[in-house]
Amino acid sequence: MALExxxxxxxxxxxxxxxxxxxxxxxxEADLVAALRRDGDLRVSLVATVDGAVVGHVAMSPIRVDxxxxxxxxxxxxxVLPAYQRxxxxxxxxxxxxxxxxxxAVAFVVVLGDPQFYERFGFAPARPLGLADTFGSGDxxxxxxxxxAKRPPTGMAxxxxxxxxxxxxxxPEPLPLAMIFAAGANxxxxxRGALPWDYPADRAFFETTTREHAVIxxxxxxxxxxxxxxxxxxxxxxxxxxxxxxxxxxxxxxxxIAVCRTExxxxxxxxxxxxxxxAEPLATRIYETAIPESPDxxxxxxxxxxxxxxxxxxxxxxxxxxxxxxxxxxxx
Length: 332
Ligand SMILES: NC(=O)c1ccc[n+]([C@@H]2O[C@H](COP(=O)([O-])OP(=O)(O)OC[C@H]3O[C@@H](n4cnc5c(N)ncnc54)[C@H](OP(=O)(O)O)[C@@H]3O)[C@@H](O)[C@H]2O)c1
Fold this sequence. Notes:
The protein is an alpha/beta fold. It has eight helices and 19 strands. It is 23% helix and 31% strand. It binds NADP nicotinamide-adenine-dinucleotide phosphate.
């Protein structure tokens, strides 16, 4: 397994979101990462990739200890896709994040987690050092002091504002079902069996966000693709079973979702129009690109019909396109 660690790029943001959705039982951690980024508090954000696919992520954000001026960071959250867990990915992410802290003269790092796991990096329970956290976490709250010459400050460690949302116990959520699409200002999504535009950054966003997961597509979208998308479970919805190798067949959206879940993959509905319309009321997450064009000769259109989605993250691409990650509000 050729593991690489790098700082996040804009096109990794969708993939980071899905790594946390796949690794945790609720969307709280995925939403936390987006909120830290929005607030400018994502001081370290590293992705672990295998053959170009994002399989893990670690974030670090500022910690303030009462009146102390010491520069400190909190390590959270860390997530690895279930299929890549227990293969050293999290450890490598954490080591590299700590190396960055040392290089940036960070005085200490805190973490909330299993002391047996974190002691290998040098973390020790923080309470005996006189340092407590606002979550009242006992021995799970640990500290790694990086400045040899000085003593750690004592008092209460405060996390970045985005962590406040974690105080409420997450409501039970349905299993993730994602949709990913790009639409013009007039709702256009297709023209003569193809995309009406070429936005390389949007293609990269689609590629990194869906890799390692499952893609569900209608027969026409499959014909456009022409071959299974690599590194993903490909499921084609059609009344006529495709014979191509490397593709799973389903007769309905429900059947397609069931196939993905049996294989423990996050299902992404990737089009076309009918599948998007059918999936929208069920979707828990939407990855949407607003293309700043209105192709007037388009023949396939999709517009979201409900307002049950809240924006988790939004940013702009270099060609004026706008990326948005949305979550179903009822899904927490
Ligand atoms: N902008 C984007 O993000 C985006 C994404 C995807 C596609 N597109 C574009 O959209 C166009 C293709 O989309 P499209 O809407 O025309 O076709 P499509 O949804 O890809 O394919 C339609 C076919 O899929 C099967 N199907 C779809 N929904 C089904 C359901 N609920 N149950 C059973 N079968 C179902 C049927 O196949 P059978 O007739 O074989 O039964 C149907 O004729 C292309 O231009 C493509 O480039 C754009």
